[in-house]
UniProtKB/TrEMBL annotation:
InterPro entries: aa-tRNA-synt_IIb, aa-tRNA-synth_II, aa-tRNA-synth_II/BPL/LPL, Anticodon-bd, Anticodon-bd_dom_sf, Pro-tRNA-ligase_IIa, Pro-tRNA-synth_IIa_bac-type, Pro-tRNA_synthetase. GO terms for cellular component: mitochondrion. SUPFAM superfamilies: Class II aaRS ABD-related, Class II aaRS and biotin synthetases. This is proline--tRNA ligase.
Amino acid sequence: MLLSVATRSKQIRRTGVRCVSQLTPRNRLSQMFIPTSKEKVAASNADAVASHSLMLKSGFIRQSSSGIYSILPIGLRTIEKIEKVIDEEMRAIGGQKLALPLVLSSEMWKKTGRWDGMGSELFKLQDRKESDLLLAPTHEEEITQIVANELSSYRQLPIRLYQIGRKYRDEMRPRSGLLRGREFMMKDLYTFDESLETASVAYDDVQGAYNKIFRRIGVPFAVAEADTGNIGGSRSHEYHILSAAGEDNLLTCYKCNYTANEEKATGVLPETHEAALKAQSTTTPAGDNFLQLLNPSSAHSLGVQFATIKASLVDKHGKRTILEDNALVAAVSSSSREVNFLKVYEVIRKHMESKVAPDQQFVRSEISLTPSVPDTISSSQSVHLIIDESAEEGIEANEDTLQNAMKKLSCKDIIVHPKGDYRVAHEGDFCPSCHTDNVSSKLITEKAIEIGHTFLLGTKYSDALDCSFTPREPANAPKLPAQMGCYGIGVSRLSAAVIESLHDDAGMIWPTSIAPYRACILVADNKNPESNDIAEKLYDELNAQVSINDPLCNEVVLDDRKGGFGFKIRDAEMIGYPFVVIVGNKTRTNGMVEIRERIKGQKSHQIELPITEAVAHLKQRVAEKLAV
Ligand SMILES: [Zn+2]
């Protein structure tokens, strides 16, 4: 009736390299530390997302302190599988792995301006000599310094270095378990190239690798154009898992797949909106309207938003030149649209940097816009006027209206920036990529969890930390700063995001690629010694038939715990093993086992087959599910 265990030694000789679990004791749930619980262990409401609750209930994690978690053995198996997929794809594009310290000196961070610039999210500490240190939130400074010390010639480039390690961010409100903790695990890759062109090739390579990583993991993901934010740089994308638990809003077009973070998204205004605006715009005389916009006493009631601009340049010795410390920006859009200050920031930044004389060397500009509500405008202030294209048409300025406004407001200067897109894009706007007069395509909002990010950094860090090389040509040319890219994946966050994307009322539904164990052999009635015996033999047989490279090697657990079938199958579905093999009455009486396959939102797919076919069936289904 049962498989012949005698075939086992033959099999081992044939495959040569044995699966590790043939050499170690059986993976028995009765002897493993997997503290599952029927009760919801999640404490506060803020942490009540499904992934956090399921990870606690299934014995994947335990909270150490606010936003800091211990990863228990079964949780670590999933994390390590994610890391293995990442390792393979990083190495495939020439990434070399290294390990960088968690405790960093503040010296480099002061040089790049991030010691103060990153604010209270930095975990700062001091050693016994009262030197400033920090717990690493990211490693651009560290890696750039390492490469700077070794780099001299273009011949050493390109360099691609990555690590997988812990990082720290002192979140004001840590929440949602591993989705937003104060300590988290990340992969970060840093690339160093000769030119912007070769750095762009690196960027494309990493995007290719990221697509492979998320496809191999087996979870639906979206790639969005992103804002480059305070990290600087010119190209940036975010990788997301769509989920209601996400804190990011994406605007996406289902026709052409245009997807962008709402901070970055551009939406074409609906025609009806444009027509309504045109109708309004005929009623107000241009000159008066323009003046009203800039005069704080009337501007607020017209929905104009003000911000104070501070701008300075820092050279490589840390010397600061102040460009502006008291200018104002007045930004206006139509009454139904909020101004997007990230877009306003970009145009102000470009304006400030363009004012610098070509021979004035600086490694970075520090520009801030702080919302303000001025009572008046003083004669020492310049005013930057930003008009979104959704705003009324009558407010274009000509030379006369400008001179008139300057006289009446008695300000230092008025700079009118070209009309453009300075508004927050909305769901229902037309797609900027594929909408035409003939094809109507609208943007839809999706909630999402960010799991990866790519940045083409340029020379922001290599300039500041003097990471430069002698170029290929011409001879005796001055050294050039390396063109850098940085590329992250939130490893611990990804494990939780996968659960958010793939779970149901019964529990987690792991993709076979990263499931903690791919199959569980469940003894339905362990009071019957014969059932235990059959299950153990099936377990041994399965391990005998897999080589060390087989996707089932060391991937099977035996649920031999005391307790009824109901308790065990609930645990198995909560943990989300892709396959459960049930050894029960029917196995004893007629040699049949039941195999259940975990599928989202449905009763498990169940088949019954002779126990002699169970191993072949499992091997085939696991291979099919892993095929990308
Ligand atoms: Zn589109």
